[in-house]
Amino acid sequence: MRRRLTAGAVATATSLAALLVGLPTAPASAATALEYTVVADDGISTADAIAAITAAGGTVLSSNTAVGTYKVTSSVADFKARAARSDALIGASASKAIGYAPTASPAVEKPVTEALRGRGPHGVTTPDPLDDKLWGLKMVKADKARAIEKGERGVTVGVLDTGLDASNPDLAPNFSTRLSRNFAPDLVDIDGACEVEGCVDPVGTDDGGHGTHVAGTIAAAANGSGVSGVAPSVTLVELKGGQDSGFFFLDPVVNALTYAGDAGLDVVNMSFYVDPWLYNCKANPADAPEAQAEQQAIITGMKRALNYAHSHGVTLVGALGNQHDNLNDPQQDASSPDYGSAPYDRTIDNQSCFSLPAEGPHVIGVSAVGPSKSKSQYSNYGTEQIGVAAPGGFTRDFFGTPQYNSAANNILSTYPLKVLQASGAVDAAGNPVSPTVFKDCTPSGECGYYTYLAGTSMASPHAAGVAALIVSRYGHHDWWRGGLTMNPDLVEAQLYRTAEKTACPEPRLRSYTTEGYTTEFDAYCAGPKAFNGFYGHGIVDAYKAVGGR
Prior knowledge:
Layout: E1 18-24, E2 34-40, H1 46-55, E3 59-64, E4 69-74, H2 79-85, E5 89-94, E6 100-106, H3 135-139, H4 142-145, E7 156-161, E8 181-182, H5 188-191, H6 210-219, E9 235-240, H7 250-263, E10 267-270, E11 280-281, H8 289-311, E12 315-319, E13 332-333, E14 346-347, E15 353-354, E16 363-369, E17 386-391, E18 411-414, H9 417-423, E19 437-441, E20 447-453, H10 456-474, E21 476-478, E22 483-485, H11 488-498, E23 509-510, E24 523-524, H12 542-545
Helix pairs in contact: 2-8, 6-10, 7-8, 10-11
């Protein structure tokens, strides 16, 4: 994930992933109009919800009636508390900064219930110039899968992220401008000055970089340039739900999910968690009443949106997160809220606290592994939430060998030129000055840029790409969608059935102290080879998923 995304980029050899750290500033004035996402209670009509919001001191700017959420502005200092007290509303979540502004600092790091109908082989493609660096592509056997299935243009994959740089020659051939949408206008207090009038970046751009990296792993074109993705012939759809700074707020995310359902998208990748709470708790005793109501609103809004997308045919894939937590038994959360006010220590109750979307309904949770297939030290795990494992990168993999502590142990993918230049990794003339950044140009002179990142954010798109291949191979034509479609439950079942079963390490307590990490990173792998807390149903296998043997 992003900075500390549920699917965020964790350790990167190029120090390009920005970890956003909240730094205190002066509190917002009570007269300042702030934006909120308000969630109505079950069974409340739109009219009654608007009346309740108005009574609490808010003005409704827009609404998503499919999930009962409302974008609201208010200058009332205690609006969140008023909304929490309303019988018609669950709560309000702030979506503009209140007293805190982040600054960027560089980071270092089911059985199938209907017959599967296959189509004929698509032929074999030659590797793209940088494919020899894509150990993840080989681990999931996406290179072999192309002899059977490269992906159908009518299969659409939504990248719910910070944007997508469609100028990259590896992404341009597969990018749908028509279907793409921006749901997250720039917020100047955290994203900086707006690049365009109205603060709504045009689709096909990415000022954060995270979404572009994710998109390349899913579906960079196999076109003789740069790298190729897991499903190199499917269609990419930008669903900008994250701020340039890496924050993902409730209103843009739920709007993107319901749009994905309405637009008939087949797969949506989610490499993030919804801010400002790493864990949303229903009634944590450390939280004030309005904070409890805010988290209850996020839980309800996200569950409604995920259920809506799934019921409209969307396969949902999400990163498990980079907090090296056992999601069966999370302990402390000292990072929340990461926005709006100062974070404080909270003891997490597994039964009533949720990291979203990873712990939401119908989400295929993906853990991260390194090139040796070891669970990456940062990756969350646990039998309750995991679905599968996939390559996410592990810089310090292969301890004791020449491959140890190498950038090449992470995931190489597409990245925006302007973000690389802003970080100093590429000079003003467009030439990489970092050994871990690559440039590759087409014969016509269009150049793409590529860099290494690591995180469960990088693992999730490998699984999303395999899901897109499954739909391409076994889906049926749908005139309304204008392409192929497949029941997401069947996609999930095929993904699980064909994953490479991977046993827990022995001893089962995996220590990372040899690699230089504290005992805080130690992780115990529970469960048999068929399903366990590190690998779930196994490491995704594109070749077997599309019928290979």
